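Can't attach files on this board, so I'm pasting raw text. These are the components:
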Amino acid sequence: MKKSALPLLLLGLALSAGARAAEMTTVEADKSALTFVVREMGVAVDGRFRRFVAQVRFDPARPAKAQAAIDLDLASIDTGSDEANEEVAGKAWFDTRQFPQAHFVSTGMRALGGNRYEVNGTISIKGRTREVSAPFTFTPGAAQSAFDGEFVLRRADFGIGEGAWADFGTVANEIQVRFHFLAKAGN
Amino acid sequence: MSRPPARFTATAIALHWIMAALLACLFCVGLYMHGLPLSPWKLRVVSWHKWAGASALALALFRLGWRAAHRPPELPAAMSAAARLAAHAVHVLIYALMIAIPLSGWLMSSAKGFQTVLFGVLPIPDLLEKNKELGEALQQLHLGLNLLLAATVAGHAAAAVKHHLLDKDDVLSRMLPARAGRLSR
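---
Top answer:
Structure tokens for the assembled complex are below.
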């Protein structure tokens, strides 16, 4: 069984390498999504960011050479309620007047096997920069390819939610951030 | 057919007064929290309100079941047909509101995208998809039903006092906790 499967496996690898030769360079922002889940009083509440610009250079055959950068407009947050959207723009949270954007810049990527990869980089929010690592899956498609991944951001690392909000009993420290980027080859 | 009891069962009396106190607290906390600015305190109070409201719904359903299984004492013979009709209508309306009000709150939470997790541990399923307009409409409904309940309960309480002071019958006393020397049968 193993012996007879080996040539097929090699053929499959050769074919997929040919199909995956294209480098993904253009992220389609309107078809991509940056969402998050935050636990308030133990309840998972969904939110998202409406405006961001993502740049990526990714060839699945050469992940070590891949690059990614995201500029995120923090005022475009949608927490699910107008009152909360106003609150998180304020000084205790993102302080969007002084720090309108969050930035992510990759420092490296590596293959984890199959269609799974890992991106490492730095996130800057509210004047503080932290290292972050996120596993993601790459799903190649005919027109566009998809990047889907998630990581945990600790809001206290960036001073997101200070003062009365610093207590994790009402709003948890760990925020699950999820990304879904659709990208195509070429410009 | 057996003779109707002269008093409510101890369980029915306990349920009546526990729910009266719980609903009064829920009503006041609901009005109070609505005016609060967003803060950790507000998140806590809103969660407590939702937990208490879900508990009130469970109690109301249990109470309906108890009411169906235990015959209540009859209304005084001296009451007119109109007064009997009014009394029954008010009782039916209060039972309906005790179910409808927590349901509207639950639906409103679902539509606003904030699931109810009882006591922070038991998730209650979301019955609706997230929908802002629907959430705001349900909030208005929740308020309207509560104002209707407040008006109905005021009439219910006024009628009980009228029975006690003017008609001098046992309509109020038979719903009061049994005292020494006047135990329920």
